[in-house]
């Protein structure tokens, strides 16, 4: 028989389970209220409803509308609730479900608001592929390059031209005293004018360890001596470079210390102005390597012009030409003028000039 009122149903409330002394021993009322299956859906396994009571509030075992039970059966119900299939499992399941629900809400909030503070732990452990944000389309890499990163591959730099090399200064100490070992530059070069009246054969030696490219120095000597403005004198002479055999003289590039020794053999002291010489008592035309490397104040930045003058001046001595002075104000200085030291004589100043015949 149904003992509930016919009035509108009130909020369902579980009664204490009967127990010893007439006092309930089941879960406390606030736990039962908290896990009302009407509030949390199907978290609690649904029990079979009494026939004819669909749509009416259900009761738990031990409620005042439940059928009378023996004490033993009530204790058995309590044991079932503490068993893996009873309240213990239900409460554990509800706690896990609550945690999962909270985590799900947190993830949803982070996805909806990617600008929220802090970086997501999953993002830190599993970053998106480089150039992509959140699995989106690839974007250009705009990160600043870290120092030490390898630069982009480029083709080989072009070799400097002869003119560029001729105009480049070389670092060298003014008091350098080299090894003294003079090494002939290999190879040979034909005379520019094989039909010249006189064929001059010369060799080029470079002191070891100067830091000057021997092949380049030899090329500079050959080009300078066979220039149309040089000592060829319009077909009178032509110069051929050899590396062995018969030769008329040896153009020698030597450190200041070695150059001074070779010049002293011919009674010439070059130490005061650190200059070059033609050591006439030997086979050597001495080019002071420090002057070749650094030039002179009279030529300023025209290091290429100074080197050409240096070769022509000292070879000129070997050919038999002596020193001359400036002929007139503003005229090109004669190549046999001591242009390394000065461009003025007796108040008359000439312009720097590296060539015996600058007009050719």
Distance between the termini: 140 Å
Strand proportion, as a percent range, falls in: 5-15%
Number of DSSP helices? 10
> Helix and strand succession?
HHHHHHEEHEEHEEHHEE
Tally of strands: 8
Q: What's the story with the biggest beta sheet?
A: 6 strands, mixed
Secondary structural class = alpha/beta
The helix content, as a percent range, equals 25-40%
The radius of gyration is 54 Å
Mean pLDDT: 76
Principal-axis shape equals: globular
Query: Runs with pLDDT <50, length 5+?
Result: 1-24, 37-88, 114-129, 131-135
Write the SSE topology.
Elements: H1 29-34, H2 37-40, H3 71-82, H4 87-112, H5 121-125, H6 162-166, E1 182-184, E2 198-207, H7 214-225, E3 237-242, E4 249-254, H8 256-264, E5 277-278, E6 284-288, H9 289-294, H10 303-318, E7 344-345, E8 348-349
Parallel strand pairs: 2-3, 2-4, 4-6
Antiparallel strand pairs: 1-2, 5-6, 7-8
Structure description:
The protein is α/β, with parallel strands linked by helices and 360 residues long. It has ten helices and eight strands. The strands form two sheets. Strands 1, 2, 3, 4, 5 and 6 form a six-stranded mixed sheet that branches. Strands 7-8 form a two-stranded antiparallel sheet. Strand 2, helix 7 (214-225) and strand 3 (237-242) form a beta-alpha-beta unit. The relative contact order is 0.08.
């Amino acid at each position: 028989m149904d003992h509930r009122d016919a009035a509108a149903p009130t909020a369902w409330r579980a009664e204490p389970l009967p127990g010893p002394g007439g006092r309930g021993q089941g879960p406390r009322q606030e736990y039962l209220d908290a896990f009302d299956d009407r509030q949390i859906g199907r978290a609690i396994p649904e029990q079979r409803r009494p026939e004819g009571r669909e749509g009416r509030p259900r009761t738990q075992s031990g409620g005042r509308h439940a059928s009378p039970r023996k004490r033993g059966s009530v204790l058995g119900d309590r044991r079932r609730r503490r068993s893996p299939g009873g309240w213990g499992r239900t409460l554990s399941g509800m706690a896990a479900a609550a945690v999962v629900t909270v985590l799900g809400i947190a993830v949803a909030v982070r996805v909806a608001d990617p600008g929220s503070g802090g970086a997501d732990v999953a993002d830190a452990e599993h970053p998106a592929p480089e150039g992509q944000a959140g699995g989106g389309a690839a974007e250009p890499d705009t990160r600043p390059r870290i120092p030490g990163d390898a630069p982009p591959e480029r083709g080989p730099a072009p070799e400097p031209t002869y003119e560029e090399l001729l105009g480049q200064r070389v670092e060298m100490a003014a008091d350098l005293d080299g090894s003294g070992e003079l090494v002939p530059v290999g190879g040979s070069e034909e005379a520019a004018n094989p039909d010249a009246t006189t064929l001059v054969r010369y060799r080029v030696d470079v002191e070891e360890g100067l830091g000057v490219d021997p092949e380049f120095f030899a090329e500079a000597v050959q080009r300078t001596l066979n220039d149309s403005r040089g000592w060829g004198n319009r077909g009178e002479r032509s110069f051929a470079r050899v590396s062995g055999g018969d030769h008329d003289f040896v153009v020698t590039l030597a450190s200041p210390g070695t150059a001074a020794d070779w010049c002293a053999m011919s009674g010439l002291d070059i130490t005061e102005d650190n200059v070059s010489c033609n050591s006439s008592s030997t086979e050597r035309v001495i080019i002071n390597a420090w002057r070749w490397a650094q030039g002179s104040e009279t030529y300023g930045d025209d290091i290429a012009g100074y080197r050409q003058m240096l070769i022509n001046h000292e070879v000129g001595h070997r050919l038999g030409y002596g020193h001359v002075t400036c002929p007139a104000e503003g005229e090109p200085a004669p190549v046999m003028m001591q242009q390394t030291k000065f461009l003025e004589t007796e108040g008359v100043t000439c312009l720097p000039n590296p060539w015996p015949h600058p007009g050719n």
